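From the methods appendix. Each design record in this collection lists the discretized structure first, followed by the designed amino acid sequence. Records were kept in a plain field format so they could be parsed without special tools. The example shown here is representative of the layout used throughout.

RECORD:
C-ALPHA CELLS (559 positions):
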C-alpha cells in the first residue's frame, strides 16, 4: 500500500479517467421534442441516469460524455443548463406552488438550479415536505407529445356532445360567481345559492351537505363555509361519477377585509361544473352523476374530505372523480392542460388525455402527486380521481389576490378543458350516447303523405321540417329548431313567405314568421308522439299525431 501511494503521489501511476471525472447534470429542453428524440436521449450510452420533468429532461453524465452531449444539445438549441460536479441524487424537485395540509401555500420564486422558471423547482436536497428526490430514472411528469400515443378516431356522438359546451355561457356563470367575495361568510353563502339555483333549473336533486372541519381551524374560516352544494341525477346503477370543483376563494392572508373574487381560483372550476351539468342534462347514463362545488378547499380540502367520508358512511360507490381547479388562464398562448393524479388514477388520467387529444385542441401534460386539490381525498380513499388544471397556473400573477377577476381569463381555454370533463364523465358513467339517434323521417301511417324530418346539429341542438297541408289542401312547410332533453325534442316553429322558385330564387326576400311550438316524445327506436300548439291566428289547430319511423341515416343506433 505504501508503494502504491508513493507512485500516485509522484505521478508515476495514473488512475483511469473515468475514476477521476466527476459527474455532471445536463438539463435538456424536450418541450414537444417528440417520443423518438426523448427515447434516444434516455437510452444514450453516455447517460448514466435521468429524470423527466415535463418539458425538461435531466441527464447525468461524466467526463468526455458531458462535453460531447452538451455540444450536441447546444447545436439542437436544446441545452438549458449544465450543473458540473453534481449528481442527480443530490437534487430534489418540488412543485413551484406547494399547498400544505393546513391550507397555506409555499411559493418558490425565480429560476431554480436548472435556470428555468418551470413547474418543478429543482434545488439541493433539503428534506422539505412534498419534495421528490431525483435520480433512479423517474418520470415526475411528461408531455403526451413526447409519447407514442395513438390518436383515437373521433365518433359523431362524442363530437356532438363536446360541441354542446358553450364557453360564453360558462363565462357568464363565472362572472356571477366572481361577483361574490367567497372568502367571506356572506359571499360564500350567496354563491352557494347561485349554484343551487343552477342545479335546480337543470332538474337535479339538490342538497346542501354540511361537514365538520378540525376544531383548531380559526372560527372565521369555519363559519358559514362548511358546506358542499350537490346536484345529483340518478342512473340505472347505484354507482356514481363525481364532477367537482371548490367554490370558496381566498387572498394571501385570509384577510376578510380584502375582497376575494377568486375568478380563476376557483370560480372557473365551479362554473365549469355547472356547464358540465348543463351539457350532460340530456344524456342518459348508466351510472348516476353527482355535481359538487366544495367548501373550504383553501383551508385544507375539508369539503371534499367531508364528501368522501359521507359517501363511505352511506355506502355510496363512487366509480371515479373528475376535479376542475383553475381552468381558464392562458399565459403563453398555448392551449395546454395538466392532468394530475396518483397511480390509482393512472387509467383515468390516460382516458382523459386520450379524450383531450382526440376531441380538443389541448396539449396535455400528465403528472402524479404534483399538488393538493379536491381530487386528493378521493385518491386517498382508493377512488380513481384526476385533476384538470390549466398548465400556466404557477405564472398567474393575480393568484390569491383581490385582482383575480374574470377579465384575466380565457373562455377558449376553459371551454376546451370542460369538454374533457364532460366526455370523461360520459365515458365513466357509461352514457348511452347518440344525440342523432332519432334522426330521420317520421310519419303517421294513418295520415300518409305528410310527416317530419328530424336531425341533430353539431352544436347539440335539433332541427325539424314538417311537411303538411293547409286546410284547403295546399302544401304547407313548417320549420323549427330546438333542443333534446333525454328523449323529448322541443322546437319553436316558423313559416316563410317571399321565396321564389329557382333559378330566380331571392333568399334575401324570405321572411320567417313565428308559427308555434312542437314537441316530439320518442318512446322507442321507431315510435314517437308529436304534439303542437300554434300561435293565435295560425290556420291550423293544436293537436297531436302518433309517429312511426320511416327512415334513418346509415350508422345511426338507437338508445
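DESIGN:
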Amino acid at each position: 500500500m505504501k508503494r502504491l501511494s508513493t507512485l500516485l503521489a509522484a505521478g508515476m501511476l495514473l488512475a483511469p479517467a473515468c475514476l477521476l471525472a466527476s459527474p455532471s447534470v445536463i438539463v435538456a429542453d424536450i418541450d414537444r421534442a417528440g417520443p423518438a428524440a426523448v427515447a434516444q436521449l434516455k437510452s444514450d450510452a453516455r447517460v448514466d441516469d435521468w429524470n423527466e420533468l415535463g418539458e425538461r429532461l435531466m441527464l447525468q453524465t461524466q467526463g468526455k460524455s458531458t462535453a460531447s452531449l452538451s455540444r450536441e444539445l447546444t447545436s439542437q438549441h436544446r441545452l438549458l443548463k449544465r450543473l458540473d460536479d453534481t449528481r442527480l441524487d443530490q437534487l430534489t424537485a418540488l412543485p413551484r406552488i406547494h399547498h400544505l395540509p393546513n391550507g397555506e401555500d409555499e411559493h418558490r420564486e425565480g429560476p431554480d438550479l436548472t435556470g428555468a422558471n418551470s413547474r418543478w423547482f429543482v434545488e439541493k436536497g433539503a428534506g422539505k415536505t412534498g419534495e421528490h428526490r431525483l435520480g433512479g430514472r423517474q418520470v415526475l411528469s411528461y408531455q403526451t407529445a413526447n409519447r407514442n400515443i395513438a390518436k383515437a378516431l373521433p365518433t359523431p356522438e362524442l363530437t356532438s356532445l363536446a360541441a354542446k359546451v358553450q364557453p360564453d355561457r360558462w363565462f357568464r356563470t363565472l362572472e356571477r360567481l366572481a361577483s361574490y367575495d367567497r372568502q367571506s361568510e356572506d359571499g360564500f353563502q350567496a354563491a352557494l345559492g347561485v349554484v343551487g339555483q343552477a342545479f335546480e333549473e337543470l332538474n337535479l336533486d339538490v342538497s346542501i351537505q354540511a361537514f365538520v372541519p378540525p376544531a383548531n381551524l380559526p372560527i372565521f374560516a369555519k363559519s358559514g363555509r362548511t358546506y358542499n352544494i350537490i346536484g345529483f341525477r340518478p342512473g340505472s346503477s347505484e354507482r356514481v361519477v363525481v364532477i367537482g370543483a371548490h367554490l370558496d376563494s381566498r387572498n394571501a392572508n385570509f384577510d376578510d377585509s380584502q375582497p376575494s373574487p377568486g375568478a380563476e381560483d376557483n370560480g372557473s372550476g365551479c362554473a365549469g361544473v355547472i356547464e358540465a351539468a348543463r351539457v350532460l342534462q340530456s344524456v342518459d347514463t348508466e351510472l348516476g352523476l353527482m355535481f359538487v362545488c366544495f367548501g373550504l378547499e383553501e383551508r385544507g380540502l375539508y369539503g371534499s374530505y367531508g364528501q368522501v367520508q359521507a359517501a363511505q358512511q352511506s355506502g355510496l360507490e363512487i366509480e371515479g372523480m373528475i376535479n376542475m381547479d383553475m381552468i381558464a388562464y392562458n399565459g403563453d398562448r398555448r392551449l395546454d392542460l395538466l392532468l394530475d393524479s396518483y397511480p390509482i388514477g393512472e387509467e383515468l388520467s390516460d382516458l382523459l388525455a386520450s379524450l383531450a387529444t382526440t376531441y380538443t385542441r389541448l396539449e396535455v401534460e400528465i403528472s402524479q402527486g404534483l399538488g393538493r386539490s379536491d381530487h386528493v381525498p378521493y385518491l386517498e380513499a382508493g377512488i380513481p380521481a384526476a385533476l384538470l388544471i390549466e398548465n400556466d397556473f404557477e405564472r398567474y400573477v393575480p393568484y390569491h389576490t383581490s385582482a383575480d377577476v374574470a377579465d384575466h381569463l380565457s373562455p377558449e381555454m376553459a371551454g376546451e378543458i370542460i369538454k374533457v370533463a364532460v366526455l370523461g364523465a360520459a365515458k365513466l358513467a357509461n352514457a348511452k350516447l347518440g344525440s342523432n339517434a332519432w334522426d330521420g323521417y317520421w310519419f303517421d301511417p294513418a295520415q300518409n303523405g305528410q310527416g317530419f324530418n328530424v336531425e341533430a346539429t353539431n352544436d347539440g341542438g335539433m332541427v325539424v321540417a314538417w311537411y303538411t297541408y293547409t286546410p284547403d289542401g295546399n302544401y304547407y312547410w313548417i320549420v323549427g329548431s330546438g333542443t333534446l332533453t333525454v328523449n323529448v325534442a322541443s322546437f319553436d316553429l316558423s313559416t316563410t313567405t317571399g321565396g321564389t322558385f329557382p333559378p330566380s330564387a331571392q333568399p334575401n326576400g324570405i321572411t320567417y314568421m313565428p308559427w308555434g311550438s312542437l314537441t316530439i316524445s320518442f318512446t322507442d327506436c321507431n315510435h314517437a308522439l308529436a304534439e303542437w300548439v300554434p300561435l293565435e291566428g295560425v290556420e291550423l289547430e293544436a293537436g297531436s299525431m302518433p309517429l312511426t319511423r320511416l327512415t334513418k341515416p346509415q350508422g345511426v343506433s338507437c338508445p
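APPENDIX NOTE: DSSP finds 13 helices and 26 strands in the chain.
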